[in-house]
Design goal:
Blueprint: H1 2-6, H2 21-56
Length: about 110
């Protein structure tokens, strides 16, 4: 279809499209506009959720004009140098979990 729209008519030939060409183009443009709107709505919702999360966690920072200071991407931890995160290292003297004695209600060993 796109090539057909770009080709000029041959000499002596009348440029005529099919009876549904205008409708098809209109539907394609409407579909593209709807897809762009959906993408923009999803992105705005994502940014609003990030702002709300920052506020709810109590980590929100504001600049001098009271605008939100974007903390950047969310990472599992902030690595400093070559140190491992504290949560990833297992405690050395952690007791082993005891077996469950209820036998009927849970499936723990």
């Amino acid at each position: 279809m796109q090539l057909r729209l770009q080709q000029p008519p041959k000499p002596g030939e009348v440029s005529v499209f099919g009876p549904t060409t205008a409708r098809d183009i209109d539907q394609a443009l409407t579909g593209m506009l709807n897809a762009q709107n959906d993408l923009l709505n999803a992105w705005v919702d994502y940014e609003a959720q990030r702002l709300n999360l920052d506020f709810d966690l109590g980590t929100m920072q504001l600049d001098a004009q009271n605008n939100w200071v974007d903390p950047g991407p969310i990472r599992p931890y902030q690595a400093s140098g070559s140190e491992e995160p504290a949560a990833a290292a297992a405690p050395k003297n952690c007791p082993r979990p005891r077996p469950c004695r209820c036998r009927s209600r849970c499936r723990r060993p």
